C-alpha cells in the first residue's frame, strides 16, 4: 500500500476510502470484472483507520441474533422478524464470500479476523421477559435462527453469563436468549487482508491521498482530483466509475460531485465512547456478547452491550456505547464538516429532523453531561460488581446517520441504517449511514455491482454463484442450501470453536 501517487494512471474504477466497503467492492470486482484496473485512494496514512478499525466499532458480526432493535414488538405484543431475517441472510452472504476468499488464497488464518462468540440478548423486568418470550417464539420459527435458546432462570444465566449475574438480586426478573452461532469480527484486519489480496492481482492502493474533487467530464468519465497530504501536491486521474466509500466523508464528496441523487440528503454525526477492560479475570468470566434494550429516546446504535473482543490476539471486554456529539464526520475530520454539509437542497430535511427528533436531542445532551461515575452506574446495570478502576474509556468511530426527505410527506427523517446512492447513469455511487454496515458489506456492494454493472453480473453469474452459493436464492426458504452453507462456512472460517 503505497503513499506514492506517481504510479497512478487512469484506471477503470476509482474507490475512495480504504475501509471495508471499498475493500469488499474491490474483491467483488475481481470476480465479475477481473480484467479491470482499480485504484484505491485513502486519505489516512494506513487503510482501515476510521469506522473499520477494530476499536472504532464493537466487532459484532451483526446477524440479528442478539440485537433487539431488529425485532420490534407491535402493540399486540407480536414480534416482527422481517428485519432480523433480512440482516441474518445478508450476514450469511458475507460469510460465504469470505469463505470463498479464504479458499482462493486470502492471506493468513480466518482466526485473524473472525472467531466464534455466543450472542446473548438480556432483559430485566416482567415486560422485558414477556417480550423476550415472544421474540424467542417468533425467531425459533425461522430456519435462520434454529438453535436459539431461551431462559429466565438465574441458575442457567449464571452459566451463560456469570459476570452479568454475579451480585445480581436473586429476586430480579430476568430473561435471555442465546445463540452459539454468533461471531466477533475484526473488520480492520479483514479490510487489510482484502486489500493486500487485491494488490496481489494488480489493484493500486494509495494512502495519504485525499480526494478533494469529483468532476463529471464531457466524455462521461470522472475527473478525480487527489491531494497528497504530505506535500500538498495535487494530481488527477480520469475513470469510468467512482465509488465513494469514505464513511462519514462520503456525503460531502457526493455533494461535491453534484449528482441529482444526493439532493435532499443530509447527515447527523454521533460519536461514541466505550468502557474497556483487559482484566484476565473479568474476560474469563464473560465469554459472550450481551445486548440489552436501548433507553427511551436513544438511537438504535446506542443499544447497551457488553462484548468479548479479540483484537490482535488479545481478549478484552467492551461496554457501551455512551453517545456523544461532534460536528466532525470522521474522527480525523474537521469541526466544520456538519455546517458545510448543509445545502439549500437539504436544509428543509435537516430542519425537519431538528424539529421531530427532540427525544434524540435530549438523550444526547444527557449523555454528554454524564460524569464518569454516572457512566459507571450504567455499567453496574450489566455488571453489578464492576470496579471502576478496572475499566478505561476509549473513543469509538464517528457515525453519520442519514437524513433524507420522505417522498410522501416531503419532511426530513432520520434513518438508522445504510443508504446506497447510485448515480442515474451508473458511473458513480456512494454509501451513507452506519450499522449494520460492515457486517452486510458484501450484500451492499453486491447490490451496487448489480445496479452499476448488470452486464458484468450476467456474464459472470457462474463465478458469482461459486463465490456465493446462495446468490439469487433465499436461504430461509431452502433448508438444504442453508445447512450446506452453514457447514461450509463454519469449516472454512474455522468457527467450530
TrEMBL record:
Keywords (A to Z) from UniProt: FAD, Flavoprotein, Oxidoreductase, Tricarboxylic acid cycle
Reactions catalysed according to its record: (S)-malate + a quinone = a quinol + oxaloacetate
GO molecular function: (S)-2-hydroxyglutarate dehydrogenase activity; L-malate dehydrogenase (quinone) activity
Cofactor(s) the protein requires to work: FAD
E.C. numbers: 1.1.5.4
Keyword Cytoplasm listed: no
GO biological processes: tricarboxylic acid cycle
SUPFAM superfamilies noted in UniProt: FAD/NAD(P)-binding domain (SSF51905)
Associated pathway: Carbohydrate metabolism; tricarboxylic acid cycle; oxaloacetate from (S)-malate (quinone route): step 1/1
One Pfam entry name: Mqo
UniProt xrefs under InterPro entries: FAD/NAD-bd_sf (IPR036188), MQO (IPR006231)
Record keyword Translocase present: no
UniProt family annotation: Belongs to the MQO family.
PANTHER family on file: L-2-HYDROXYGLUTARATE DEHYDROGENASE, MITOCHONDRIAL
Protein's name in the database: Probable malate:quinone oxidoreductase
Amino acid at each position: 500500500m503505497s503513499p506514492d501517487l506517481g504510479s497512478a494512471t487512469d484506471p477503470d474504477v476509482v474507490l475512495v476510502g480504504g475501509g471495508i466497503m471499498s475493500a469488499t467492492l474491490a474483491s467483488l470486482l475481481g470476480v465479475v470484472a477481473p480484467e479491470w484496473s482499480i485504484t484505491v485512494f485513502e486519505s489516512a496514512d494506513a487503510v482501515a483507520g476510521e469506522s473499520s478499525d477494530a476499536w472504532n466499532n464493537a466487532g459484532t458480526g451483526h446477524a440479528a441474533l442478539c440485537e433487539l432493535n431488529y425485532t420490534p414488538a407491535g402493540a399486540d405484543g407480536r414480534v416482527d422478524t422481517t428485519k432480523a431475517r433480512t440482516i441474518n441472510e445478508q450476514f450469511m452472504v458475507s460469510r460465504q464470500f469470505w469463505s470463498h476468499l479464504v479458499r482462493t488464497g486470502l492471506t493468513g488464518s480466518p482466526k485473524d479476523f473472525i472467531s466464534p462468540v455466543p450472542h446473548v440478548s438480556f432483559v430485566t423486568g416482567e415486560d422485558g421477559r414477556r417480550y423476550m418470550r415472544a421474540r424467542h417464539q417468533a425467531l425459533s420459527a425461522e430456519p435462520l435462527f434454529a438453535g436459539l435458546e431461551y431462559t429466565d432462570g438465574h441458575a442457567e444465566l449464571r452459566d451463560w453469563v456469570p459476570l452479568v449475574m454475579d451480585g445480581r438480586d436473586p429476586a430480579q426478573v430476568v430473561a435471555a436468549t442465546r445463540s452459539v452461532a454468533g461471531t466477533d469480527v475484526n473488520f480492520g484486519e479483514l479490510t487489510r487482508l482484502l486489500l493486500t489480496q487485491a494488490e496481489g492481482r494488480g489493484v493500486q492502493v494509495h494512502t495519504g491521498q485525499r480526494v478533494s474533487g469529483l468532476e463529471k467530464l464531457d466524455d462521461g468519465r470522472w475527473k478525480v482530483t487527489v491531494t497528497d497530504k504530505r506535500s500538498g501536491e495535487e494530481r488527477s486521474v480520469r475513470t469510468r466509475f467512482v465509488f465513494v466509500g469514505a464513511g462519514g466523508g462520503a456525503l460531502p464528496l457526493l455533494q461535491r460531485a453534484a449528482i441529482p441523487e444526493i439532493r435532499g440528503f443530509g447527515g447527523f454525526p454521533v460519536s461514541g465512547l466505550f468502557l474497556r477492560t483487559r482484566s484476565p479475570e473479568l474476560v474469563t468470566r464473560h465469554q459472550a456478547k450481551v445486548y440489552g434494550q436501548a433507553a427511551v429516546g436513544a438511537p438504535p446504535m446506542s443499544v447497551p452491550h457488553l462484548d468479548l473482543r479479540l483484537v490482535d490476539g488479545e481478549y478484552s471486554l467492551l461496554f457501551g456505547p455512551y453517545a456523544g456529539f461532534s460536528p466532525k464526520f470522521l474522527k480525523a475530520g474537521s469541526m466544520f464538516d456538519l455546517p458545510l454539509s448543509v445545502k439549500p437542497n437539504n436544509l428543509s430535511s435537516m430542519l425537519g429532523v431538528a424539529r421531530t427528533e427532540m427525544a434524540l436531542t435530549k438523550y444526547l445532551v444527557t449523555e454528554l453531561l454524564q460524569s464518569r461515575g454516572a457512566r459507571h452506574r450504567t455499567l453496574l446495570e450489566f455488571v453489578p460488581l464492576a470496579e471502576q478502576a478496572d475499566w478505561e474509556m476509549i473513543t469509538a468511530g464517528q457515525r453519520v446517520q442519514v437524513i433524507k426527505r420522505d417522498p410522501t410527506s416531503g419532511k426530513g427523517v432520520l434513518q438508522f441504517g445504510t443508504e446506497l446512492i447510485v448515480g442515474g447513469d451508473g458511473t458513480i455511487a456512494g454509501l451513507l449511514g452506519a450499522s449494520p454496515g460492515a457486517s452486510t458489506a458484501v450484500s451492499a456492494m453486491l447490490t451496487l455491482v448489480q445496479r452499476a454493472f448488470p452486464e458484468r453480473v450476467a456474464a459472470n453469474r457462474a463465478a458469482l454463484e461459486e463465490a456465493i452459493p446462495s446468490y439469487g436464492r433465499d436461504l430461509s426458504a431452502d433448508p438444504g442450501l442453508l445447512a450446506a452453507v452453514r457447514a461450509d462456512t463454519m469449516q472454512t472460517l474455522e468457527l467450530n470453536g
